[in-house]
Amino acid sequence: MNGEHLEVLLTREQISERVKELAESISQNYEGKELLLICVLKGAVVFLADLIRNLRIPTQVDFIGASSYAGETSRGEVNLAPLFSSSVHDKEVLIVEDIIDSGLTYRALTNYLARLEPANLRLCTLLNKPSQRRAELIKPDYVGFTIPDKFVVGYGLDYNERYRELQDICVLVT
Fold this sequence. Notes:
- Strands 4-3-2-5-6-7 form a six-stranded mixed sheet, with helices on both faces.
- The protein is an alpha/beta fold.
- Helix 1 crosses helix 2 (45-54).
- It has three helices and nine strands; from the N terminus they run βαβαβββαββββ.
- It has helices at residues 12-29, 45-54, 104-114, and strands at 5-10, 35-41, 59-70, 73-82, 92-100, 120-128, 142-146, 152-153, 169-173.
- Strand 3 (59-70) and strand 4 (73-82) form a beta hairpin.
- It has one domain: Rossmann fold, CATH 3.40.50.
């Protein structure tokens, strides 16, 4: 595959265990409330599916497309494409993201969603890569794993639309 190879960073077992822990924490924090999960497409869809199967609270799900990468490089601008079927207004909203690195996508999402006046807006990310942070003051409320400055694929994350199907999260070595 063009001289690329993969090195496992997080196994499917590690991911599964951590997703269960995150779901338990979210369930406790939102007990007695209904939660609107907004999944950032396409990368977070696998994470979302596993997360909602482990939650113990009522949820609604909506989606928003967000793109900022070309290959391994962030373009520095974010394109959003909301696919909402329900209102965000006055709802407890949790953004479900695959990875937070530069923070630019998250900043664009929160700016957009804040205008829709949710009751509360928080972030759950499977992967946190703070070494790449360009947007200040971004601290996810729920973090699966903090990872080093490596380009990762698998479990929904891609490189030019490839590798999403991998069950482990791997470092793409070129």
